């Protein structure tokens, strides 16, 4: 047995290198909560919660307020019986980022105890992944300049934020394509379009001979019928992000044939729920991408090991640690331009 004897929460604040602007949201920084679990043997496991008020109604303060509750539930639990711990964490339904941090910290400690890497414990499918890099909303010139810089940095996939101004968005995509031709593009409207705007955007971009690999969350997260309407009228694959937080959300979208892709983010689902969503998608021939909120390299580490372990994601949008000011990479991975590789 290897019982948990202590849990620590450590709050850390980060600033973005430049303001991060998406549809109807603007941020200059993020406050995350690192979780440290220690067993009676002195083995430590680490995770990170990067809460999102916009998506999940979480804040760093709400996460920290749950420390005593987490201790009361988890102290004395055996990490080797991690499935029972996951069941206990299901009661933290309104704090998915904390659920992820604790669940991953438990797995991290378990793997250290048994001398196995987390990515191998999760399947060991590959030891590296390719990530995109994101261009947030700003002026057309700034977005084009950022895209050119991303290409020069060695990235092959650019994620472009849209959703606030349809005509400007079309111009932005056209100009970015003209200056970075040969790359792949993910367009993320972050719920910003009406169904008509989303369909108009997709058809106009297609008519210009520009290919979009993924058209992400074009409409309101709760309007599943409109998401399906866009899917069946878009020449590009449609992906759900904000519409999917739980495995039940994923099942509903799959049953309604509303999406081509699901974007899994650990911070909105929890680690064990993410594993369930993966299996639902695979069994339904729905494609997958993996994304992030505002994690530091500690939090991105969680998604890197999941992505490498399972090996099922067509696209990895794991770049938040590149967008914030952080002294060094503290996760169990190394990064070379667009390639993220787990440490040997």
Q: Roughly how many Å is the radius of gyration?
A: 20 Å
**SSE-based structural type:** alpha/beta
CATH class of the largest domain: Alpha Beta
Summarize the amount of helix as a percent range. Answer: 40-55%
H/E order of the elements? Answer: EEEHHHHHHEEHEHEHEHEHEHHEHEHEE
Average pLDDT, rounded to a whole number, is: 98
Oligomer type: single chain
Largest sheet: 8 strands, parallel
Using the coordinates shown, work out and report the CATH topology of the largest domain.
TIM Barrel
Percent of residues in beta strands? 15-25%
CATH architecture of the largest domain: Alpha-Beta Barrel
Number of strands: 14
What does this structure look like?
It is a single chain. The longest helix has 19 residues, at 96-114. Helix 4 packs antiparallel against helix 5 and helix 7 (140-152) runs parallel beside helix 8 (166-180). A hairpin with a 2-residue loop joins strand 1 (4-22) and strand 2. The chain folds into two domains: 4-115, Enolase-like, domain 1, CATH 3.30.390.10; 120-342, Enolase-like C-terminal domain (TIM Barrel). The strands form three sheets. The protein has an eight-stranded parallel β-sheet. A three-stranded antiparallel β-sheet has the order 1-2-3. Strands 4-14-13 form a three-stranded antiparallel β-sheet, with helices on one face. It is 41% helix and 23% strand. It is globular, with a radius of gyration of 20 Å. The protein has 344 residues and is α/β, with parallel strands linked by helices. The two termini are 28 Å apart. The model has no long low-confidence stretch (mean pLDDT 98). It is built from 15 helices and 14 strands.
